[in-house]
Design a protein that fits this description.
Blueprint (H helix, E strand, L loop, with lengths): L4 E4 L5 H8 L8 E4 L1 H7 L1 H9 L4 E7 L3 H13 L4 E5 L4 H9 L10 E5 L7 H6 L6 H15 L3 E3 L5 H7 L5 E4 L18 H6 L4 E4 L1 H4 L4 H13 L3
Parallel strand pairs: 1-2, 1-8, 2-3, 3-4, 4-5, 5-6, 6-7, 7-8
Helix pairs in contact: 4-5, 5-7
Amino acid sequence: MNKRIIVALDFDSKKQAMSLLDRLDAELCRVKVGKELFTACGPGLVKDIIKRGFDVFLDLKFHDIPNTVARAVQVVAHMRVWMLNIHASGGLIMMQQAREALEGFGERRPLLIGVTVLTSLAKEALEQVGIAGNPEEQVSKLAFLSLEAGLDGVVCSAAETRLLRAQLPEDFCLVTPGIRRPEDASGDQKRIVGPADAIQGGSSYLVVGRPITRAESPNQALKEFNSAIASVT
């Protein structure tokens, strides 16, 4: 099965994370470990999750000087995660060195993707930090920079995937958070799209948090997301 749903483990304890994993089928999804859970539990938890059969997207969004990011990326690769990310706004050289740091891992090399514009940011928020134009323009600029650097793809809103898919290679991954069904609360996401629309628009993988993790039956909610995207693939 092509597992296109990535369940976000947005917790602050190993107990909560493992309790959810007990209720999910590793054959139906991958999982994302972000800053909150990683800070609370460290690399050991990542290894434990992988032992349970789950592919892990380690979402730490590295953004620093090129050498520091390259070293951090190598450390993460040794954990045997499936995917990790860096901020595309760190620049071309930073991204290139991060990609080069993974060359020696062969078939075990994790996917390396660039973060474009966070889905919590709208036009006004970008203007506050000195970025003119709309989010779509900035996302496109950073996506092309990520491609030039040799990255495997980018994180973007599903609202931008149609534009990017029309411009970028077919095998360039588009990872999209902010996925909600009509009945799901939007939370702190500003640019959100439904699962079927996201896949139709060109998303490669969908990151889903609370609509699955806080569901009465997380695995049933996961199946519903999978059914929604299966109907359009």
